Amino acid sequence: MATYGKHLKAARTKANLQIKDVTEQLNITKQTLINYESSKTEVPFGRLEQMAELYEVTIDELTKGEKVAAKIFSFINRKGGVGKTTLCNLLAVAFAQLEDLRILVIDTDSQKSTMQLADEGVHRNIDVQFIDFDSNMPISDLLDMLEENMYQFDYIFIDVMGSFSHAEATATIMFKSDYVIIPLEASDLAMGATFQTLGMLPEIADKRSRRNQSFTPIGIHNKSSHTKESRSVSDLNGMMGLKLLKNRLSNRVRYKRRMSFKELPFTFEEEDEFLALVEEIKIILDNG
Ligand SMILES: Nc1ncnc2c1ncn2[C@@H]1O[C@H](COP(=O)(O)OP(=O)(O)O)[C@@H](O)[C@H]1O
Ligand SMILES: [Mg+2]
Which of these three, 17, 48, 64, is where a domain ends? Predict the structure, then answer.
């Protein structure tokens, strides 16, 4: 016997909504809702989406009563200026806008730019929160924040500050992450610091695997150009367990000028390289 109805009802009650509230909002009759909630009629997918939004739950939770924990992505590289924040923001908007996923972006960098971007407007599927790494308890604050939001979002993106003084915090964040995104920029200076980041990967992977948790470090060649150094970035594939994406982002200033948390700053027709990158990430996520 179908049981989705009782989950629908449970989700409505939890959201503190009366039958009348829902029928008015969704423009359906009372009988229709009762039929849904007693599993008598199937709910069309479009309607499920509306209900999920109204009840503020995921569709899985709505139909199976299941709470699925968010996947945690951290954007890490000890080197500043390689594109952590840029990739974090662009990918958050991409998954929110194109996949309709709910994303929490946690900014640990106290960088004014992210705050300003958030002030300018945020996509309805995105929430932006800040952690003050100059406070006395940044890591426990962050862990609390993850705990509180684990079931409210599909993905949690953590933009991790590059500074050396927080190496231990960085390791803790990595340990919490299902996916670590490492932007790679081809220059001697960037590579030196990147190796320090890569060196942390095996221990984290090992620790997580002992807890049956997967761990996928993804390298993205950012600001790629036609230089000799740029070609050497591909040698990093497989190193320390790093999965280097085939697709890269070229060195184009466009990202900065039009970045926004509200919508992608370009259409996919104009931005093939970013589309290809997102598609490649999606394949990795689907397989893991
Ligand atoms: N693919 C790219 N092409 C051109 N400029 C980029 C690209 N990615 C990032 N940038 C620029 O490089 C600078 C540093 O990027 P940012 O994301 O702030 O790095 P991080 O967070 O690692 O310090 C920013 O001005 C950003 O706009
Ligand atoms: Mg940054």
Answer: 64
Q: Are 8 and 133 within one domain? A: no
**Nearest-ligand number for the alpha carbon of 115:** 2
pLDDT digits (tens, 9 = 90+) for 45-98: 999 999 999 999 988 888 888 778 999 999 999 888 899 999 999 999 999 999
The preferred substitution site among 79, 85, 86, 90 for testing ligand 1, maximizing ligand atoms within 8 Å of CB, is 86
The burial of 137, by beta-carbon neighbours within 10 Å (0-12 exposed, 13-18 middle, 19 or more buried), is given as exposed
Considering just the CA atoms, what is the radius of gyration of the chain in Å?
Answer: 21
Residue ranges making up the domain that contains 38: 4-64
Q: Do residues 40 and 76 share a domain?
A: no
- Does the beta carbon of 283 lie inside 6 Å of ligand 1? no
Phi and psi at 73, nearest 5°, equal -115, 130
Q: Which CATH number does the domain housing residue 41 bear?
A: 1.10.260.40
Split at pLDDT 50, 70, 90, the class of 268 is low
Judge if 15 and 149 occupy the same domain: no
User: What domain count does the chain have?
Assistant: 2
State pLDDT tens for residues 10-58: 899 889 999 999 999 999 999 999 999 999 999 999 999 999 999 999 8
Q: Can you tell me which atom of ligand 1 is nearest the CA of 77?
A: 22
Does one domain contain both 198 and 264?
A: yes
The Cβ-side half-sphere exposure at 131, using a 13 Å CA radius, reads 25
Separation CA 133–CA 14 (nearest Å): 35
pTM here is 0.81
Instruction: Round to whole Å and give the CA distance between 186 and 197.
Output: 15
Residue written as token pair 């050396």? 164
- Band (pLDDT 50/70/90 cuts) for residue 120 is confident
